[in-house]
Amino acid sequence: MQDSLVQELQHLLADERITTLLQPIVDTAGGSVFGYEALSRGPSDSPLHSAAMLFETAERHNLTGELESLCLRATARSWAAHGVPQKLFVNVSPDKLVLPALNRAGLSRLLDDNGLRAEDIVIELSERYPTSDLAALQESLVWLRQQGFGIAIDDLGSGYSGLKLWSELKPDFVKIDRHFVRDIQDDLIKREFVRSVVDLSKRLDCKLIAEGVESEAEFRLIAELGIHLVQGFLFGRPRPMPTATLDPLLPRHTGRQWAGNSRDSAANLCRYVEPLAPDATLKAAWERLQREPSLFALPVVDNGHPLGLLHKWRVLETFSTPYGRALNERRAVTHLLSADALVVDHHMSLEDVSQRLIDEDLHYLKQHFIVVRDGGYAGLGATRSLLKQITARKLEDARYANPLTLLPGNVPIQKALESRLRERQPFTLVYFDINHFKPLNDVLGYRAGDQVILKLGGILAELFTDHHDFVGHIGGDDFVVISPANDTLDRIRRAQALFVSETATLYPSATRDAGFVECSDRFGQMARFPLVTLAAGLVAVNGFDCDACRTADQLAEIASAAKKRAKAAPGHLFLDTVDCHPLANAATMRP
Known about the structure:
eight-stranded mixed barrel, alpha/beta, 39% helix, 19 helices
């Protein structure tokens, strides 16, 4: 049996018959795919199809190095063919990364030949495999980080060396073994273990990934513990193509959705009610109100132009007086018409409709309003429905809010961008990022880091207060603002100044006087870093007159690039202008 397995393995290696499967790693806070883990399999008709049998056979016959090299080549070819923008997580045994097993020139060629970037790849080191030479491994990881690779520890909790590896290697990601995730909602010990790991990850500035999430109950509990990167069958099985199922992240909507209308505008509240002509009698109107008990107001329209509303309560009040019906039923509906009815355009946002209702009258809230399209009557909207939709949206935003700042997270940010693009009005998208945040965390601790993030969230919320403004927290030290205001740049500069002055108080006086902190850089060398400042990448969205307008995802990518350039620009400000034509030459904003 063993002879046949090794022969099968040798044939697989010679013919390079290894298949790469991809399993998604989902960012549950952002409602998107963060990356994919590459998993290698033998042919489906081979006894070495399963990963366990494949690698165990290779290990028994000292062929692990050859097999891993083949898996890396197959993974690189597969990933390059798909061309997706997310992170790629690749499993590599520690001994494969130690010289002379690590072929640095060969690894660079592998990337170049397939058009891949080291910045998009995370190398996973499994706790299941012992590290024979930790010092040599650390030396290799320094080189890999210099090239741009991320580092992850896989299967934390499956062996005995995980915490030691964590402390020695300082990885960017740690993946919690599926044993601690399975049925975690029913196991107090597992919950407490994971909770302690979450606390440790905050202190060490490391991202956690929960493996083996297979049920919604496990997912909800993991999310409550503060882990937002998850991997498991609930979101996708390993497949040859990069696919994911995000249904567990979607809000559960009920109620009728109006076809072709935006859920963020008055059009979604619009219900067509057959209008009355101005010369219709009150008797005819009352009879109709009696036949249709769900109606509490009837629109009065003249040649498509809305004149006002006839309220049921007013007709009832008039007809209930002595001789009221006899005296009034032959009169035209205009006799009791409420001409002060609120009229809104079907494109108007729910927030604007709500504000108009509040501003209309200080004494009572109108129960109905008229919706028009291109100036003509389109239907009626109910204030009750408006409040229900706004409440549902607020609850949805709260569900995806950042747990530290309570500002809207990635899902509401994406929807806000899409809504602004649908409105086709100019706006500015601002991507804020804190400069030198990690050195502050390293020197003052994660609690000080949390204070800095909270201060920034508070500053932005105070400066961008118009109901057209949107302030969101992507995560970590990344924030976004969407604003149509003309004074956006002035407010950004005020935010930068306030941020510097308010965060300076967190440093010891000696550090403030020196103007820098000293700590290890990412390569383990002592270095000096300036105190934190605030970078802002701006994207001014102007034109909407053709089909070349950017999507929300494209705008997010442009804003991210602007943010990176802002970190090195004078005044830490950088502006890109986006319209329906090719991007204009980006100009640096001078402070």
